Amino acid sequence: MTRRLIVEPRGLASARLRILVPVLSVLAALVVGGLFLAITGENPLDVYGKMLDAAFGSANGVSNTLISATPLILTGVAAALAFKMLVWNIGGEGQFIMGAVFASGIAIWLGPGAPSWVAIPAVIVAGGVGGAVWASVAAVPRVYLGTNEIITTLMLNFIALSFMNFLIFGSSSPWRDPAVSTFPSGRPIPDTAKLPEFFKRLDIGIFIAIALAVAAWWLIGKTRWGFAVRVVGDSAATARYAGIRVSKKILVVFLLSGAAAGFAGALYVAGPVGALDPRSLDLGLGFTGIIVAALAGLHLLAVIPIAILMGALNNAGPALQSIGVPAATVTMLQGAILIFAVAGEFFIRHRIRLPRREPVSVEMPDGVEPA
Predict the structure, then answer these.
(1) CB 311 within 8 Å of CB 243
(2) What confidence tier does 367 reach under pLDDT thresholds 50, 70, 90?
(3) What is the DSSP string of 78-98?
(4) Which of 22, 42, 77, 263 is least surrounded, with the fewest CB atoms within 10 Å of its CB?
């Protein structure tokens, strides 16, 4: 007689388990990626060694890894904030783009005459406002009309991308560089609006991103308002019974999530890109932020090292092409990491066991004693 597996809630998972599962998820993804590379005729150890050297083997490699990680920290925070409330904001990509649009727009409007101490904060704040405004397009219907935020935020990504392309390729907007006539490109923002660099093209955006992630962690984990948010995320019915205004909390967190992604767009424009350039901004950083949040277990501080890991993977793409390995290998690894991270989250929340065997009782005929 076959015994069916029993899936039961684990309860509160230990800190060791929460650390071990993401590590094992990454290792499992590397094993699967290694099998794929071996099938295609590549030596997995050589490929992974090249990736590691490209990401951390030189000063330029470390700088490029941290540059790639900067927006991922904030798009990871954006996803983690929303998902903690069981709000499925899949629109980080569109909010990132609209943050870049708002940030570059305010930089161009202020012009080179504005001092850096005015221009840089204005650019960053404008990026957050842009992301929040774009998130509100999905947040308000979700809260007050009960619409499905997965569909609306996903569709808004493509609208934001088309809007950015229109500003540069399909119009004579202020965002388009009038000095370039051969192929349209974004107007460079003034130097006074750019983030100061301090190491091999690496700018202070990495510190701003880390500070914002820590601030989000403190807000959610250490304040009375954050406690109410966590209650809503655990049980909306319990929160309503306790007198918490659930709809208001969901709306605010949704807007904060969009603002975090918008900050990422602002830092990318004011940092390595320096303009609203669709070719440099359409990188799927909002979608990668979902992987970062999932692998971090929605922990807002764990997002930081995970974003650096993903930045290292992104940075390794060009290095792989130099040895004949397709750069799509990086995308495959990111997808494998996401799959194993989601599976790992299941095992954090649940345990699987076999049912216990019940003793079999045998009735003996009258007058017959068991041997």
Answers:
(1) no
(2) low
(3) HHHHHHHTT-----HHHHHHH
(4) 42
Q: Which among 291, 285, 244, 239 has a CA at the least distance from the CA of 264?
A: 285
Phi, psi for 17 (deg, rounded to 5): -65, -40
Q: Print the domain residue range for 98.
A: 71-353
Q: Amino acid identity of 335? A: G
3-state secondary structure 161-180: HHHHHHHHHCCCCCCECCCC
User: Beta-carbon neighbour count of residue 371 at 10 Å?
Assistant: 4
Considering the entire predicted model, what is its pTM? 0.87
H or E, element range at 277: none
Residues with Cβ within 8 Å of 206's Cβ and at least 6 positions away in sequence, in order, are 66, 67, 69, 70, 73
Alpha-carbon distance of 232 to 225, in angstroms, equals 11
d(CA 341, CA 361): 45
- Say if 209 falls within a structural domain: yes
Angle at the Cα of 226 (from 223 to 232), degrees rounded to 5? Answer: 150
Residue 226 lies in a domain: yes
> What gap in Å lies between CA 266 and CA 258, rounded to an integer?
12
Q: Give the span between the Cα atoms of 161 and 19, in whole angstroms.
A: 36
CA distances 63 to 68, 143, 203, 204, Å, are 9, 41, 9, 12
Rounded alpha-carbon distances, angstroms, from residue 281 to 43, 59, 64, 308, 320: 33, 24, 16, 18, 22
- If one counts the domains in the chain, the total is 1
Distance between CA atoms of residues 56 and 315, nearest Å: 10
pLDDT one-digit tens code per residue, 341-361: 777 777 777 777 767 666 655
Is residue 292 a part of any domain in this protein? Answer: yes
Closest Cα partner for 135 from 79, 89, 83, 100? 89
Q: What is the pLDDT of residues 303-328, one digit of tens each?
A: 999 999 889 888 877 777 776 777 67
